[in-house]
Amino acid sequence: MLSAEQIQIVKSTVPLLESAGVAITEHFYKRMFKANPELMNIFNMSNQVNGKQQFALFSAVASYAKHIDNLGALGAMVERVAHKHASFMIEPAHYDIVGHHLIGTLKELAPQEFTEPVAEAWTQAYNMLAGILIGREQHLYQDKSQAKGGWRGARRFVVSEKTAESELVSSFVLTPEDGGAVVDYQPGQYLGIKVKPDHADYVEIRQYSLSDQANGRSYRISVKREELPQAGVVSNYLHDQIQVGDSIEVMPPGGDFYLKSLTQPTVLISAGVGQTPMMAMLETLASKQSSTPIWYLHACENPAQHSFDQRIQELKENHSTLHNHTWYNQPQLNHPFNGLMQLADIADELPLQTGQFYLCGPTGFMKFAKDQLLAMDVKPESIHYEVFGPHSDF
């Protein structure tokens, strides 16, 4: 348990952390991977190259130090991280390794400031956070393993269908190799997959949003082909090499971004492949045959990159409460909305005071959409969002 003095010591190091910035986490990862190279089979090494992982870890460490005396403020972060860790099959032993290298990094980068009392305070603080996360992750593992169709760790699935949804996106239907049932999930959650591409140096684990409603028999993920070399190791492998009949390892579904209500007016706002969790939400809402009003708002480059368009039109024909608008960044003749998504164009029809708004897509797009919603007096607590890769707030 942290003492009041140790809490103050940790909080006093915030300026030091902020002045060092991501140099701390860059040093940490180099140190850890040199001593424990096996962890390269867990961490997304593409995010190491582009700096996203370093920034995400630095933000989390700094936020924890700032709120060390008010851990309730970190509840959302803990839930988000726990779900992501569960999809990587993180175990308590991994926390010991990370803690060792984190404290070692702080000692090496700031030897004068990071005295023994400071090191002890940070060790206690880290152990407390680790205990919280480990506890939550063990609950997630237990819940998934005990649920109908559930399991723990990796389970082999066969690709039973592969469908091109657009120029860049393909869907993969995954059916368990053992023929058993699969655990249900909340619409909006993701699936962790584990593969070893032929040209990759390490085992790769990625999370992809589930893009259909739960059915108890199989899962569907929809994957965008990302550009190489700094990203797209797994997405290109799935597109180019994985075919129907091939098998991959799959972790149970998880994630803290999901549909909160089946009865409130719902606005689904996406860009690019960000529509994958929105499709799971839309299919789930549509299957309930309720009178809940739904708005499906999507932005993409052009019609060739517009995934699921035909399916959305089918749903619209059968559900009078579904409203659909699409913005194409590359202007299209006779198309009502071109360029960036301007929600003011349809503000009169949106449930600004009574609806729940869900955002998914590139971070810049979501900030753009969120700022518009706030300017239209949508309550912040009614706006929910999902970020691909290491999480960041905006």
Structural class: alpha/beta
Shape: globular
The CATH class of the largest domain turns out to be: Mainly Alpha
Structural domain tally: 3
Kindly identify the CATH topology of the largest domain.
Answer: Globin-like
Integer average pLDDT: 91
Strand content: 15-25%
Oligomer: single chain
Query: SSE order in H/E notation?
Result: HHHHHHHHEEEEEHEEHEHEEHE
Largest sheet: 6 strands, antiparallel
- Biggest sheet strand order reads 4-3-6-1-2-5
Describe what this molecule looks like in 3D:
With 394 residues, this protein is α/β, with parallel strands linked by helices. It folds into 3 domains: 4-146, Globin-like (Orthogonal Bundle), CATH 1.10.490; 155-254, Elongation Factor Tu (Ef-tu), domain 3, CATH 2.40.30; 266-386, Nucleotide-binding domain of ferredoxin-NADP reductase (FNR) module (Rossmann fold, 3-Layer(aba) Sandwich), CATH 3.40.50.80. Helix content is 40%, strand content 19%. The chain has helices spanning 4-12, 14-20, 23-35, 45-50, 52-66, 75-87, 92-109, 116-146, 233-240, 275-287, 309-318, 363-375; strands spanning 155-164, 169-176, 190-195, 204-209, 219-224, 247-254, 266-271, 294-300, 322-328, 356-360, 383-386. The strands form 2 sheets. It has a 6-stranded antiparallel sheet. It has a 5-stranded parallel sheet with strand order 9-8-7-10-11, sandwiched between helices. It catalyses: 2 nitric oxide + NADPH + 2 O2 = 2 nitrate + NADP(+) + H(+); 2 nitric oxide + NADH + 2 O2 = 2 nitrate + NAD(+) + H(+). It holds the Pfam family FAD_binding_6. Residues 152-260 form the FAD-binding FR-type domain. Residues 149-394 are annotated as: Reductase.
